[in-house]
């Protein structure tokens, strides 16, 4: 995992389990700080929240950062990240995008619409999730004060992502980064 010595805690109603079935009852912080499950699987929620039509209608007028906060609040209990902190983390994470709304809907001929997910630092849809993930990591690491390093494979991420990561991490004090490059070059 990302932090192999991290020990599991139990806090919230929203619990996560491994896709391989060997791990259950972990909370969001446990999952975020561990990376893969100890049994080699990926984490997923043990149950999914139910969204009513009324909830979806009420979300239809939200900005993208507000919507992200609402969705995150379903998976991250206030015991782990209080709502005001969650609002601030998501807002800070999404503040560096090239368009004010973070994502943009382009209307093309014939009623076709395209949702533009490339306005982040690396021009990839991954920016939408990774900017929030890095902020959540920093939040928990500042609280717990353990030393942490993120180990990333440059080969998998590609040159644009590798070049953008230092800028994303520069404001965060709880996270260091180590890049692993398979020689001799990146694709």
TrEMBL record:
InterPro entries: Thr_synth_N, Thr_synth_N_sf, Threonine_Synthase, TrpB-like_PALP_sf. It holds the Pfam family Thr_synth_N. Residues 15-93 form the Threonine synthase N-terminal domain. GO terms for biological process: 2-oxobutyrate biosynthetic process; serine family amino acid catabolic process. It comes from the Eukaryota. Keywords: Lyase, Pyridoxal phosphate. One of its GO terms (molecular function) is pyridoxal phosphate binding. Its cofactor is pyridoxal 5'-phosphate. Belongs to the threonine synthase family. This is Putative threonine synthase.
């Amino acid at each position: 995992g990302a932090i192999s010595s991290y020990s599991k805690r139990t806090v919230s109603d929203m619990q996560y389990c491994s896709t391989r079935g060997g791990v259950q009852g972990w909370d969001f912080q446990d999952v975020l700080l561990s990376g893969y499950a100890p049994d080699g699987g990926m984490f997923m929620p043990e149950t999914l929240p139910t969204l009513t039509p009324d909830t979806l209608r009420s979300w239809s007028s939200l900005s993208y950062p507000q919507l992200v906060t609402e969705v995150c609040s379903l998976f991250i209990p206030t015991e782990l990240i209080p709502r005001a902190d969650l609002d601030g983390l998501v807002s800070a994470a999404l503040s560096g995008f090239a368009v004010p709304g973070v994502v943009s809907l382009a209307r093309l001929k014939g009623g076709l619409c395209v949702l533009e997910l490339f306005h982040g630092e690396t021009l990839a849809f991954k920016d939408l999730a990774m900017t929030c993930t890095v902020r959540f990591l920093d939040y928990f690491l500042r609280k717990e004060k353990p030393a942490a390093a993120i180990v990333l494979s440059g080969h998998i991420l590609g040159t644009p992502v590798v070049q953008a990561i230092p800028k994303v991490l520069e404001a965060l004090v709880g996270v260091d980064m180590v890049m692993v490059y398979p020689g001799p070059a990146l694709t």
